[in-house]
Amino acid sequence: MLTVDSMPRHADPALPERRRGQILEAARACFRERGFRQTTIEEICAEARISPGALYRYFGSKADIVAAIAIEARADAEAALERLGGAEGLIEGLAALAHAFFEAFDREADGALLSDIWAEAARDPLLAAALQARDRVAVGRIAAAIERAQAAGAAYPALPPEDAAQALMAALEGFALRRALWGDGGSGEGARRFRALALQILKPKR
Q: Does 10 fall in a domain?
C-alpha cells in the first residue's frame, strides 16, 4: 500500500520555464553591471544561484543566453507580427508592431542592453546567426503581409515585398537605436513616425 511519503514525486511542469527565466534575469543583471565580454558563465550561475550543469540544461553557451534575451524582448513585437494577416489593416498592424518593439526599449535599462546585444552580434558570429534567424522570420512575415496587400490593391504593386520588408525593419531598428541613445520620443511617438514612413513606402501611388 502506498503512503504519502512513498508515492512517486512528479516533476513540476512549470519549473523549466521558471528556471529559464531565473537564468535570463541573472544574466541581464550581470550584463548591465559588467558587460557581455566581462561576464562569465560562472558569474551568471552565482547570480542565479544555480550550478553550471543546471544552466547548461537550458542554454548551450553565453551567446545562447544573449540571443534569448534579445528574442524575449521582441516577444510582444513577434505577437504583433502574427496579427499582420489582412491587407486592410497592414499599416495599422505595422504601427502596432513598432509600438511593441519600442516599448521593449523603455523597460528599465533594456534600451542600452539591447543596443549592446546588437553591437556584440557584430563581433560574435554565433550570436549574429541566432539573431539573423529571428530577423528572417520577421522580414518574411512582413513581406508576406505586403504581398497580400498588393494583391488586394492596398499597397504599391511595383515594390518588391522583400525589399520593402527589409527597409521597414531597418527603419524600425534605426528608430529604436536613436531612442536608446537619445531618448528620441516615447513609444507612441516612435510608432507614429514609423507609421508615417510605412504609409509613404507602401501606399498605392496615384
A: no
